[in-house]
Each structure stands twice: as C-alpha cells, then as structure tokens.
Design brief:
The structure is a homodimer.
Chain A (H helix, E strand, L loop, with lengths): L17 E13 L3 E8 L2 E8 L3 H9 L5 E10 L14 E12 L16 H6 L1 H4 L3 H23 L3 E2 L16 E4 L6 E5 L4 H9 L4 E9 L11 E10 L3 H20 L9 E4 H8 L12 E3 L1 H4 L5 H8 L3 E7 L8 H10 L9 E6 L2 E3 L8 H10 L7 E7 L1 H18 L11 E8 L1 E4 L4 E4 L25 E9 L2 E9 L3 H10 L4 H14 L7 E7 H8 L26 E2 L2 H6 L2 E3 L1 H4 L3
Parallel strand pairs in A: 3-5, 6-9, 11-17
Antiparallel strand pairs in A: 1-2, 1-4, 2-3, 4-5, 7-8, 9-10, 10-22, 12-13, 13-16, 14-15, 14-16, 17-20, 18-19, 20-21, 21-22
Helix pairs in contact in A: 4-6, 4-15, 13-14
C-alpha cells in the first residue's frame, strides 16, 4: 500500500476519491459492527470508519489499540452535517476503509499522546519519542526547522558562504567552562568542544571569505538554568569591511525575512528600536528590555535626596540611587501580603526590603506615606510619572541591585496583571554602545562584557594604553533583543594585533598566557586581517519565542534535563576501563560511583 | 569608504564609473611615479593604477607590500588593447585610483598566495588562513557551500523537517571507536560524540516526523587515512512508510538537483546504474566500482581449472578463484619491471605475486605463456575479453584477495594509462542487495555489514531464527557510488523489536548487553514504530569529487592532519590539572608527556 497523502491533509476536495493513508491510531471507538478510528500523522487527524461490509478491514480495526501503526485504503466521503468537526482540517469528511493493515503494534503508551497531558517532565523526556508525537511538539520542531530554512535561504541569497568549523577544537581559558575530549593519540591532551565558532570565523575573514554563515552547535559546561542547555545552536555570521550599522541593517533584513516566513509577521525595520546600553539600563534596569511593557523605571534620586524618609535620603547620600516603577492600576490588585511577596522575590538580587506607595485621588497611602508631605508627594508622583490607582515600587541603594530588582518587578507585575501590550506583538531592539568590560562577581575581576575580541570605540582606544583606565572604554558591540530576551550578540572585532594585545593585557593576561591561549590568532593578525564584524543569534531562544514556548527544551528534539543528562539514553554513562586506558585516563575511585 | 562591488567583478560594464574596492595586495609593481597593484578579493583580481597626479594615493601605494589590506576609490578605465589580460574577468579594465587607505599591514607571508604554491602540507595547515586565500581553496569551500545550499533547498521543497540531534550522546559498543566527553556533574561518566545520528533519526521516525533531514557532524576516533577525518559531515535523511526503491528514487532526484546546481551537470536518473553487491564484486572486485573504467574483471576459474599452469589449476582446486583483467592496449606500456611493481603493489592485499600475459597478434607472450597451448590461449583470451595489445593481469587464490587485488590494479592501470572514459564524467550507481553481515578480520568475528539496525530482506528473515545461519541473510541496504567512491549508505531499518533482538543476538550480544547498549531503542520499538528507511551522503567526499580534488582536506576549512592534530591551534593540548580534577580524572603520568 503506497500512501497517497497525509491523513491530516484529507479534506472536502478528496470526497469521492480513493486514498491510502498511514499513521498512528489516536483513538478507537468500537461499536462491534462499526468501528471509528482517529488516524494521526504529522499533518493532523482524519476519521476512519470500518463497517461489516468490509469484514477483513473490520477485523483489523477490532485488533488495533492506541498508537498502533496502520495503513488503510478507502474512499473519502462527506460527513453528515451533524457529525462535522470544525476543529480539524478533515472535520467535514471521513474515510470509509476498504482494506487495512497493521504495520506495528504498540503497548499502552505511558502517557496519552495529546497536548496538555499530565505527565512529569522527566517521564516525558524518558519517552521523548512519545512526547514528540504531540501536535504541539510537532509544531515546535517545525517552527525551528522553518527558521533554519529561512535563515539559510536569506544567507544564500546574500552571497554568504556556508562554512563548517571544527567541533574538535582547542581549549581556551576565557569564557565559560569547556567540554573536553580526551585524545587517544596524545594521552593527557584534550580537544575542547567550542563555545562558539568565534575564533574560526575571524580566521575565515582573515582568509578572505568576506561573508561567512553557519548554523553552529556550541557547547558550554555551565551550571544549567531553565533556558540553558549543555549544547545549543547559533545562527552565526561574519562579514568583512562592513561597519556596525551596516551589519545591523543586514541583520534587520534577515530577521524581517525570518519573521515573515515563520510567523507571517511584517516587521518594519524602523520598528526595531535602538537604545544605548546606558539608556536601556536607566529606563528598564536591564540590557534586554521587554518593550511591550508600557511602564518604565524612573530615577527619583534628585527628588528624594533630602527626603524625610531616611532610607531614601541615605541611599543617595551613600552614593546609591532611588528609583521607582509606577505599575499602572496596580494599587487595587496588590494587598500588603502580596507586596511582601514581591519584596521577598527581589531578595535574590540583594535587595533588603521593598518600599512602596499607592497613589489615590487623595494622595499617597502606605506605610511610608507619612514621610511625604503634600509637596513631596506631588514631586514624587510627578517624577515617577504615576497617576491615581498606580502602585509605586521603589528601589534604593546600590545601582546594580536597584536595577535588577526593578527589572524583575517590572516583568513580574506586568505578567501578573496582564499589562503586556501585545498590540505590537514582537518588539525588537538593538542595544548598542556597551561597556567594553564588566566586573564579574563570580570571577572577582574585570572580564570582557562580550568577548576579548570586541573592538573598542575608536575614540576609546586610548583607554587601553598603559596608565589609563581601560574600564572606561565602550565597545562597538550590539545585542539584538526581542520581547525581553537577548536574541543575539554581535560586534566589530579587533583586527589588529597591537590592539588585541592591549585588550588581553587589560584582561590581566601575561604575554605568555596570551601567546599560549591566542598566539595563533595574534600571529594571524600580522598577515593582513580585514576589518570585520558579525553576530550570532540564538536559534533555541528564537524558536522558543516564535513557537510561543517559555522553555527552550520545548524546541529541542532531545534536550538534556536540568542535570545535563538525557533520560531516554541515560547519557552520560560509565564506560569500559579499557576505553579509559586507551585514553591514558583514570577515573578517581571516590567519585566514579556517584551517579 | 564603503565598498561598492567586489574587485573580481569589475569589468567593462564599469568603465567610466567610480568604484570603491577593498581587498588584499596580490602583487605590486613600483615604477616610482607609477605603481600597479593587483588587488585580490574572494571574487578575483583587478589591476589598480596609482600615478603622480594623485600624490596621496601614490604615497600609500608605495608603502604597501603583498597581503596588505587596502581600500581604494577610483575610476574604471579601459586598458589599451595591448595590455588586456584575457585570463581574468577584469582583464580589459583597470582602476585609476584617486584615494587609498591601508586597513591592515602584513608581514611577508610564509608562502606565496597562489595556486600550486610549493609549501609543505604541515606549513599550509599551520597558516591555514593564508592557504585558504588561494583561489583554488576559495573555490573548494564554495563548492561545498553550494552543495549544502542545494541539498537544503531540495529537502525543504520536499517537506523534510530539519531536526538537530544531540552531539553529547551515549556511547554505544557497535561500530568504530567513540570520542568521549567526560561529565563534570557525574565524574566517571561520559558522553560520546555520535558516529552518526542513526539512532536519533530512527527515534524521530518513531515520533512521527515522517521526513527528517540534517547536515550532521559525525565523529569517529579511528586511525586516520588519506580520506578520513576525526570529524566529518553527512547529509542525513530518514523517511517513514517508503520502501527501498522509493527512497532511492527520491535520493536520485536529490542528487540530480545537486549536480545541476553545483557543477551544472544534467544527470539523467536512468543513468544511475543499479548493481547487486554480488554483481559489483564479480565485475569490479569492489562494492564501490568506478564505472568510468571501461574494462572489467573476468572469472576464468572454469577455463583454467585443468590448466597446465599449476598455480591456476591449484587455486581452483583449493576452493579459490582465478580471475583476470585485460587492460586495453597496455601491453606496450608495461615492462617486466613495471609489472613487478604492480605485483609488489598488491602484496598489501595478501596477493603472493602477479601472473600476467601480453596478447599479441601472434598469441600470448610472457613468462607463463608456455603453459598455454593454442587452444588454451584462445580460450583464455576469449574468456578475458582480451584483444591484441592488451595486458592480462591475473589473480589466483582466495576470492577476497583476488577481488581486492584486481580492483586495485584496475584503478591503478586505468589511471596510469589514462584509460578513464570521461565521456560521461559522473558515473553513479546504486549497489543493492548487500549481505547483512560481513566477517571482520579486525574484530575476528561477524559484524553488521552496514549497522545493526539494517532490515534483512523479508524472505531472509528466517535466517535470524535459532538454528539457522544468519550469515546467509541479505539486507535491504543500498549504497550510492560515484566514480569509484562510496557517496552514501542507506537502508530500510528494523522497526520491530522482535527482529531487532534477533539481529543483536546474531551479532553475539547477550540479552543484558543488548539492553544496556540499545535498551531505549528496543523499548521505543514497542510503542508503534513505523516502517522506515533513509540514507546518509558523505558531504566531504561529495565536495571533494565535485571540486575535482583527491583529498577531503582540500574541502574542509580547518582539517586535522594525519595525526589528528590541528597545526594552527595545536589542538589537542594539555589542560590544567584543575580542569581534570573537576572531571574526577587523572592522566596517567607515563603517558601525559608524550606529545
């Protein structure tokens, strides 16, 4: 039996025709002489009817159970008006089966194959091939596939050359932890799985390819969070001889095409906003603002620096800031208890309590209202751009803690009160003019805000000279943000060895360390490297957003769980002692039994 | 200065126009008041002229050296007829430079940037970014990119879903040696880099995606040969509900489109030949025959079984074979010494000498001619399909040694005498009806000829039952061969657990071993797996052939050398003791210094 079309595509146009279909039994209703089966394939569901006039087929239908794989031949007939199902494409017809064959049987699945099924995450990952049969997961992976096709096609049309870079690469000391791959030929030596193709794509520009593109897998052995995976995919490009705004223009067109192809959305390029990093931090407390949320952070430091409320006045005196959000219409929605919860929520950022006020037609209410006389209250309300009915939430103290706290509260309250403005459902922004360095609490030192190959602004190059403060320098880097997520990160790269050496020195590399880690790149830059820049977009996150999901696991076929294991195959697994011996390795005894 | 076009694309159409170009100095000729520079970019070369009437530009030109990166503005002017260069696209014009800027300087490159440069392989890999600047390497990587684009587009047009499968996967005991990746979270446990996405794509068919495609990196820690790399790329697809000939038809169309898109060749589907594995072995001594070579192996066992030449007669008596090649017109081209060399060449296959005869108008000549009287000689010549002027080369003994020897001699002599018929430059063939198992000398046991998931022919299934000889079974597998290279390998897969278990038993897996290695697949097959099949084409080899190269390193941007190291970055490298400690590993002291 040779399939003639997908089950999910059979509709009124087929009425009167013979079709051959193959797929899975979604549901069977058995009335003895009459059996209905919902047949499922990747395109959807069609109803099959088996009746006594086709005894052999009926016999098959009586044997099958859910998730059996069957092939059937039959005629497409219109359903009675009363039987029509508007919810599915094939809802106006059914297939009167003339012959049927079981291609594979199935045990009762461990959970039902339907969206919203009540099964634990771990069980769904263990039986991923069952979970992936759900229409939602089929949709998610097709969205991801469409993004790749669209991205690929644009790149081809714009003369980018698709070049694969090695996955067995060299371990580098900067950035996150590398996954290592022991060498058998050189025991004690290791390849590293690359965290990105960054160095290779710069070398490809040095090699004169001019426009490079790759859908590249990247690997980071980091502690996992909800939206991180040990391996992830980037839409990675690099160009020569273009400046930052030319690259942003090109990427804008690219994203425009992807949005059109994948979600049929007409993105206007002028709707991609453009914020400096500083402006983004000031207005939203984050470098990845969700512009759909219609209220912003306001700086009240000047207004409250002499306030009777000591917490505010002292915060400013001690070199900190006082900022506020006026959450529109939120005053009635948050009780004291609710607000206490908000205060607990921001403790993770280092905030020590949450000051708040409700704005009424008659002035301010709340525990700290008494510290503000009429004039002070008016000044406060005006500066915070608040109106009657709003809930004012304050942050006071260290600027970074205030920013993180108010960013989190802005997102949280907007979500809880459904304040996200979806009139423009996709809000893109370029965040530009980043600091070149940022202070890392984790490492207790200055690190590159993006990576050590990011070109400083021309006018800031002197900050890298000896005796100057490199941390004042800003960079020619640009992040693309969508609806509060960082979609991608790009920059103009350093293409001159002298600047690259200064950059590494500013990162506290000794000459020897720089040579050992990046000597090949520094040497390459001595042989005529062109000005270059590029970007990498995170495919997982883009697919997650365009598929309407909130976890990247939902758009990855076989993801790792939160402990970096894959519950279906149980990877990683212990290996034979012989395999280790070949690699010249021994596993520490006290740890090898941990799993 | 904003580039207006590529240097290599400027031609007569631009005469009279201003252009801005950027690229590398290929060559400079300095006549003081007049300087010529050949400017190179990825599209080719254009001649720049600098003269005294643009003093600033001339000054720049006098500073630059080979491989400096410069940007120039100027007017395109026609060259005098006498100065025209037909070899390059821009040969009829030159650019009279009005302003110029040095974007990057360069040390004298360690080898000249030109095709056919005389530099060692290791040096070229160490300075790969310089080697890749050569027009030939630029072409090679663009051929590879074009193949990917074409393959991708076809798959999209044919409703394949592009799905990425994990690179951090589970180690499996069958096949080549895995590259391992130590887990930090579970010290003593390891991921494995997949040798192919085989199991994942079967699971995706089980998940109902119906048509899967991926450009997949694969990893094998094998000893390297000329055409092997530790990592390589497959154009990987899988389908459900199609039989072998339907899949071959689809793949035929796919290859047809790739050949058209990449080398503008009109492949007719009926020109893809179709040979059983047995026929291929009989006629060519190999499962990847080069059909462009117009002479074949002939079986003379019957003709010589009673020969006076004891070597032949005994070979047949002892259960072996006697076969021959009649190399057309080769008699005059090979001296005894040359033929001795051919004999030495095939010793690697286990051949113990090479019997030969030259065919003349007057009969046979050569050391063994005396054993053949007129009738025997005529019978021999007729059976070998030889004619006057041919050189007959014999193999006698074990069938596999004879096959390997005569295959090698057929390829070698065809190459040496330029006998390859290029009237049809691309000779594709499907090799079908393979044995399910083959005996591995390396492992000293029977292994799967393709892999353990290959479906036996329906009529051979009973051979897997207990008490029968599984090695008699043939498989529903098919290889695609091009010009003597295996391009890809595919099969219908086992989709039923009972057959899969029998297959693993035939491969001497105990029940426990089968469970440990493939338990998740066996379990998955219990939940309604559809009939499925697919293929993987080797991208590296296809790119090598279509780029006209004879080593896959020429079509890989950053390949490993023959010792699996990457001379530019020196990967693999030793890593910090701290990194090893985090992984719960120790490197054996006696081996860690080996590199």
């Amino acid at each position: 039996m040779k399939r003639t079309t997908y089950a999910g595509l059979v509709d009124e146009k087929y009425v009167g025709q013979k079709v051959t279909l193959a797929g899975w039994v979604q549901k069977r209703r058995n009335f003895g002489e009459l059996v209905f089966i919902d047949l499922r394939d990747r395109e959807g569901i069609v109803q099959l009817t088996f009746s006594a006039d086709q005894a052999e087929a009926l016999e098959v239908a009586q044997k099958v159970r859910n998730e059996y794989v069957i092939a059937v031949e039959g005629e497409v007939v219109a359903r009675d008006a009363a039987q029509k199902n508007d919810k599915i494409k094939s809802g106006a017809i059914e297939v009167k089966v003339e012959s049927a064959k079981i291609l594979a049987d199935s045990k009762t699945p461990v959970f039902d194959i339907e969206d919203g099924v009540n099964a634990g995450e771990e069980l769904k990952l263990q039986y991923r091939y069952l979970d992936l049969r759900r229409p939602e997961m089929q949709h998610n992976l097709r969205v991801r596939s469409k993004i790749m096709s669209s991205a690929y096609r644009f790149m081809e049309e714009h003369d980018f050359i698709n070049i694969e870079t090695p996955y067995l690469a060299k371990s580098t000391p900067e950035g996150a932890r590398d996954y290592l791959v022991p060498s058998r030929i050189y025991p004690g030596s290791f390849y590293a799985l690359p965290q990105s193709p960054q160095l290779f794509k710069q070398l490809l520009m040095g090699a004169g390819f001019d426009r490079y593109f790759q859908i590249a897998r990247c690997f980071r052995d980091e502690d996992l969070r909800g939206d991180r995976q040990p391996e992830f995919t980037q839409l990675d490009l690099e160009t020569s001889f273009l400046n930052a705004s030319e690259i942003q223009g090109l990427v804008g067109h690219w994203v425009q095409q992807i949005m059109k192809d994948v979600v049929n959305y007409d993105l206007k390029l002028e709707d991609i906003e453009r914020l400096t990093w500083q402006e983004s931090m000031d207005r939203f407390g984050t470098d990845k603002p969700d512009l759909r949320i219609p209220f912003e952070i306001k700086d009240l430091s000047d207004v409250v620096k002499d306030s009777d409320f000591g917490v505010f006045a002292n915060a400013v005196k001690d070199g900190g800031v006082v900022k506020a959000l006026a959450v529109p219409g939120a005053a009635d929605h948050y009780s004291r208890k609710d607000i206490d919860k908000l205060g607990q929520y921001i403790e993770r950022f280092g905030a020590k309590g949450l000051a708040w006020l409700k704005v009424t037609d008659d002035g301010l209410t709340g525990p700290i209202a008494k510290f503000f006389d009429d004039d002070a209250a008016k000044a406060l309300v005006a500066a915070a751009d608040a109106k009657a009915g709003d809930l004012m939430l304050f942050g006071a103290g260290r600027a970074d803690i205030v920013a993180a706290s108010l960013d989190a509260l802005r997102r949280l309250t907007a979500k809880e009160l459904n304040l996200i403005d979806t009139a423009t459902p996709w809000r893109f922004a370029w965040i530009v003019d980043w600091p070149l360095f940022e202070y890392s609490e984790d490492f207790d030192r200055w690190i590159a805000a993006h990576h050590p190959f990011t070109m400083p602004n021309e006018e800031d190059l002197h900050y890298l000279d000896e005796g100057e403060d490199p941390h004042k320098a800003h960079a020619q880097s640009y992040d693309l943000v969508l609806n509060g997520y960082e979609l991608g990160s790009g920059s103009i790269r350093i293409h001159r060895m002298d600047i690259q050496e200064k950059m590494l020195r500013a990162l506290d590399f000794t000459h020897e360390q720089a040579e050992e880690a990046f000597g090949f790149l520094l040497e390459a830059m001595e042989y005529g490297f062109p000005p270059m820049g590029g970007i990498a977009l995170g495919l997982d996150r883009l697919a997650m957003l365009l598929a309407g999901q909130d976890n990247i696991r939902e758009v990855i076929a076989f993801p790792k769980n939160s402990k970096a294991t894959e519950p279906m195959t149980e990877a990683p697994t212990p290996v034979d002692a012989k395999q280790l011996a070949e690699l010249g390795l021994e596993a520490d005894e006290e740890t090898s039994e941990d799993k």
